[in-house]
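Quick one - inputs below.
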Amino acid sequence: MKSTSNQNCGKCGLCLSVCPVYKVLNQEHDSPRARLQLIKYHKNQELLSSAGLKEIISKCLMCGNCTAICPSGVDHYSQFMEMRTKMREDIGEKQAIKSLTYLLAKEYRLKLATGFAKFGQKIIPENFIKKYNLGNIPLKRFPRLNKKPFRQAVPETILPDKNIKGIVLYFTGCSTNYAFDQTGFSTVKILKQMGYKVIIPEKQTCCGIPMLYHGARDKAKKNILTNIDCLGKIEGLNNDDVKAIIVDCPTCGTALKNEYPGLLKTFGQDDSAAREISSKVIDIMSFVLQESWQMELSGSSEPIESDKIKVTYHLPCHLKNSMKAPHNTEKVLNSIDWIEYTRAVDVDECCGGGGTFFYEYPEISKKIVDKKIVNAKNTGAHIWLTDCPVCRINLSGNLQEKDNIIVKHPVEVICNYQPENNNGSDKV
Amino acid sequence: MISSEIRDQLRAILGKDRLLEKPEELACYSYDAYFEESMPELVLLPVSTEEVSRIMKISSTHGIPVTARGAGTSVCGASIPAKHGIVLCFSKMNKIMETNTPDRYVIVQPGVVNADLQKALEPFNFFYPPDPGSMAISTIGGNVAQNAGGPRCLKYGVTADYILGMEVVLSSGKTIRFGSRNVKDVTGYRLSGLFCGSEGTLGIITEIILRVVPMPETIKTILVTFDNLDNTARSVSDIIGSGILPAALELLDKMTTNAIEDSAHLGLPIEAEGSLLIEIDGVKEACEKEMNAIIEKVRANGATSIQEAKSESERENLWLARRSAYGVFAKLAPDIFSEDITVPASKTPLMIKTIVDITQRYGLKVGVLAHAGDGNMHPMIPADKNNKEEWARIEKAFDEIVEAAAQMNGTLSGEHGIGLAKTKFLPLVMNEDSIEFMSVIKKAVDPDGILNPGKFV
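Output:
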């Protein structure tokens, strides 16, 4: 028998109660507490790197629920990320994941690949698309790629229709740029209506989180430095001129707000620009709430019950745990009188998407997401809102054709009030 | 060493996914919430009584130690496989077999999480009273094996008071059932009292019939502060002594309140030397009357503030504060030395004073936390086990605290159990013949000593 100091994990086990993976598998070795213990043993060289160890470390959604509930203040999140880097170095990576991190590390490669992918969406035989799944998600339920990357479809600087109230930067993330341009157009429309001059720095690139989660810190570094460079100083502007840095994806937000300053330190570089950026990052729905923008939307007369848009919501883990904005989107939805918002009983539970988790561990992911779908449908809503593109792909991808519900980013609904045509979309 | 033939036999029962033998998997079952660790040779995750029975037949044939584990939240090391062998983990055997509120019972498998049972009972407006601090994740099997308590056990009684019947697999692999679905049942020995609290040393619990009770109509919760810890403790014995029976009566000293507030930012009164979290439940009119009587008592003892939870979320907040105490202390240092001695309620003020005196004498920082209404103390000392000199002082201080409790007609453990932590103290509260009697039972039931060996018996 040996006794060991447990650093700061009191091993109380509270994290097990909120871990989506533990809740499905019900086995200690797939729990946050176990991962912390294994990391400790590995550090003390009582346990060597192995494929099995890498598997345990990887079988995690990085949702951050454990960190949020931990009474001892353990930062599971950073420890897991660090360990993922070690495991990638020691054990290597699956080819599919390697390709992904390779693509995301260089935007031009991603552009090239989406070109091929788009090409692919046309030439792959229909029956192949029908049959083939990525994880649990049939290929045909993946989002169609944007006709043109969002950032090429809009100018770098966009002026509001009325007087300029201030300046905001908009970090679009890869998903908006390549797959969900409607999120981008809606975000810009809202910011313009608020009276903001929107700058979408051209040089911005993938935030780096997908690489970091797969332990490819070296590959992420260049992206991180590029983003800090282009968000940190805009020509002809002082730092004080920029009111906020808007993100539409909570995971990009997590990177900019929580990860960059610490990472710069580990790179041995000055973190002051990263901290400045971090202090300004806000997700679009929180910004909407902060600016009370929805007030302008409400009509003068009471909307007719049948005209109301019935929506429900899924709270992304990174918005809840990392951006620490768990209630803002719901507050906005509740404040708009032409929206009938019904809360799903498990609104704040993880959807099982977790970056590429849905692809790597489809069976676990399926169990998590199917429960979410049942509860969302029980609300009677026709639109299921969520701020995170991976949640969106995962939720939407796991829906069946017969399910009478579609998944959208909240901005796409709130910016689109047209009583006669609720689903209409228009561009900036 | 467990041979490959035995492993194959076990694999045939469980399949490859529920038999773990890789080092990185085994390491995850070497610990619980106590601060020692010991590696198992094999981890098995059964899903049925039949599997457990077949596993036990093989284990007893070959004399392999078997340690049962629920969620691994024991704070006395009860689920640590001290003599290695097999860890039998029940986290996958977690079905609620029957919910019968008209007859006021439920039948559960041992891996059902306490909080999940509560959730399942909510729609029926019923609940299961034992509420250990770990209830969000700890299992009913573990709660039963440890005879778990919790704050509201002051009024409602502990786990043992809620067991109507059980199914247990013996070390031989034989399956026995006793008790029934009836509250009144004097058919034979009350064996649930033997297995409840046996810490997995007598048999493997595979099914439990539990009594459940209707939710009270009204719950009132207050937080009272004092500028003096003695007054805080005296209020407790005054309230209990006057015949009022709160559902919970929790005491927190200044260090505990501050540690929680630093971590959770709940707006707790950080200047107060002592705080009491008091909850009463029942019929509205009775609650009001009792609450007035309690307020009178705490005022007479110089309460400096009384804050009533005005909503369910405010009440949740107060309890969240109380429940996070153990984890919060883990933040202060690498290890926590926590205690669980219990004294008659009238001795609460004296015991608290004694704890403070002893720890001061040894130059230790202590957080005093107590289910004060039933005299169940949880003094906690944040420490670093690698600091040998400090650790030796802590051990001495705790020896004295336990001895003091015994002298006050108290006992070693109110709700955590003996496990690896407290075997040496048994002679303080049990004479030689009594300890020997436990060995007689152990030998009769588990002749080869394969069930959770290395623990108190």
